[in-house]
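Pipeline run #58 for the internal structure catalog. This entry was flagged by the ingest filter as a single-chain record with no existing model, so it goes straight to prediction. Upstream metadata was stripped on purpose; only the residue string is passed forward. Reviewer on rotation: M.T. Logging verbosity set to normal.
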Amino acid sequence: MIRLIAVLLLAAGTAIADDWPQWMGPTRDDRWKETGILQKFPEGGPKKLWSAPIGGGYAGPAVVGNRVIVTDYEPTDDKPPPNNPGAASKRSGKERILCLDAKTGKELWKHEYDCPYQVSYAAGPRCTPTVQDGKVYALGAMGNLYALDAESGKVLWSKDFKTDYGAKTPIWGFTGHPLVYQNLVVCLVGGDSLLAAFDKDTGKEVWKALTTPGAGNAGYCPPTLIEAGGTRQLVIWHPKKLVSVNPEDGQRYWDVDLVPYAGMSIPAPRQHGDYLYCGGVGFAGVVLKLDKEKPAVTELWRGQQGKAEGLYPVNSTPIIDAGILYGVDTPGCLRAVELTTGKRLWATMLPVIGKDEDPEDRQRHNSATAFLVKNGDRYFIFGENGDLVIAKLSREKYEEVSRAKLLEPTNEAWKRSVVWSHPAFANKCVYARNDKEIVCYSLAE
């Protein structure tokens, strides 16, 4: 009887433990639900469990069970890319999909393919792999989508968005993290259609939808699921509009004008109850009231240049908690904003760069980046300086609890050394990467 109880408890513990199977976690909302996590870092920082060499890339890792899936780029030379934000760079090399042991970092398998680059910030892939039902879906910077067997790395099917859909590679590459919905893999494709949905097992096209805006610019936004008006909706932000479609067939529900600077529709829309926020660089921001009865929206407030309100993130998708929007704004500061009004509450540079500098200094901190993950009543914030911060965020203030260095920033942006990659949180650990190594630190209490 005692053994049976032990087995049941073990099974229950396994069932409630969170993997990190895709970008922003199990439900793409940056909520990490594991318990037994340390309250603050010990002196000297958390315990490093392992480190493994890796090539360049902005793609975060996915963690499922005992496996870490991550992508990188192996160039044919060691010359770093120039990172000109306004021009694409040519580079030759291979994109790789790597599977590592989550406990040791040992390589279990890899899939690699020749992939000449012509993108700005040509360090490597951008998209976190999506892992579900024993399959890995990985999208590279030049539009190569692979479905692999998670156990062996065997290729099950693949697509090339450039040849299959006539897609033009965006200047900053393909960045729309693949979304699995029921039996579909939905991707931001571009070309003859903005969106395409594939059978997740066979790769057969099930539907395609929407017209890619002028100049073939599909933007960078990940397809995002919401639930409102009594139905599931798939929301995508392209450089002209925020659009909702039926995720089962791609039929349009509604759209709202939302034009960012330079086509940079990057962050994903965020739902909070009856409200939907979407915003990005160029004072492009809107909060919509979601209709309770049908797929429809009404506008609550909209960003406007010259008005000191709202949040306009560049690289990272914000998080909403208790009616407050927290995110890294265009000047590079972490900012708190009242969701329903756009009222700004406070701003700080501390979790982003580790220094208490002027949060409104756009010239000094342009596009600075950090990634926010909520665990219990606090946040784990990974800044572009390679620090992981534990902090409490509220309407009133930013309260830093603890800080530790995880990685050195190995890339460059706007004459700053940066690491721009969303970490994964699973197995009571954090998994993070730069352009030289991927590391695992224990966060168990």
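catalog note: Residues 87 and 120 are 6 Å apart (CA to CA).
catalog note: The chain has one domain: 18-442.
status: ready for reviewer M.T.
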